Every structure is written in structure tokens, then in C-alpha cells.
Amino acid sequence: VIKHYKELIPGKKNLVFCPSVISSMTLCNKFNAAGIKADHVDADTPKSVRRDIFRKFHTGEVPILCNVEIATTGFDEPDIEALTLFLATRSLVKFIQMIGRAGRVTDDKNSFFLLDYGNNVSRFGFMEDDREWTLENDTTSFKRETTMTKICPKCDAIVPLAKVTCECGYVWTKQRREELASIIEVELEELK
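and the corresponding C-alpha cells:
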């Protein structure tokens, strides 16, 4: 995350969504250790401290704000230039809420950068994609459409994460899963 921030979006005002308090605090500490000012906020951050953190983020004094479930909804900072999703979600609504934090258009901004480490765009598409909304309660198709996926290395098919054998015959073994878990270096690709 630090490497990609430095290479792709250096100096950008970046809101970071993390899956846990520990991951948010750890990532915040790593940014600071790399010489990039960052703050962390979560539900246990005292209100007076939280106000100061948000003020420093607003003014740009601290360009990185790592958070856990605080800036997902109701947080309005129109000049956010980048979002880092350091988490995966199965909730389309949460995904759209997070993306919406940077999706504010201003006189000076009509786009933003997204670093998606949770492969969320693969599950949900882009924020601006057309969606069919319904009041019908079809939970089976919702679960099917929001299941985490992986790409078959043999045929490039997108399959559910829990699937062990692809239609082409490729089998994910425990050893292969352990090898994949040990890989920490990733390359991001630009999606349009």
C-alpha cells in the first residue's frame, strides 16, 4: 500500500478504509514510518481527538486518513483525491457508500484514484455502472451476485472463491492456496 501510494498517488488526499482497528492502526503507523503523515480514527477515538483528526485531514496537514467504519457514511470531504479500499466487502451498498466519499465533484475535481486491494470492483463493477434496483426480496441471487471470486490461472474464468475445481478442470490445491497466501507483492492495473 505504501509503495503504491508513493508510485501512483504521491501527496494526494487519501481516505483509507480498513477491515479492523489493528489493520488501520498498523497501516497508519507504516505510512508515518515512511515519512507520510497519516492519522487513524475508529469508534473508540474520543470526539475531541476525532474532530482534530478530521480538521487536519480537511486542511491537508495530514493527507492520509485510515479509518474503520467511521467515514463510510455521512462523511463529507469533497476534495478527497484518492480512496484506498484495504478491505473486501460483500455489500454493494457499503461499496457504493465508500466510493461515494471520493465521488464528490467540485470546481477543481471531477475524478479520483481508487486503489482496490479487496477486488471489490470485480464483484460490483464501477460506481457509475447502471444497476437494476428492486424491492423484491431475492436473497439467493443477491448472495450469488456478491460472492467473492477468483480467476482461474488456466482459462481466466471468474469463479466463486470457495470453488475448488474450475469448469476447465483446473484444481486449486491446498498447497497452491498456501503459495498464493504467501504472495504479498501485487501489481495494480488501470480499469476504465
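(Above: one complete record from the training split.) The first strand starts at residue 14 and ends at 17.
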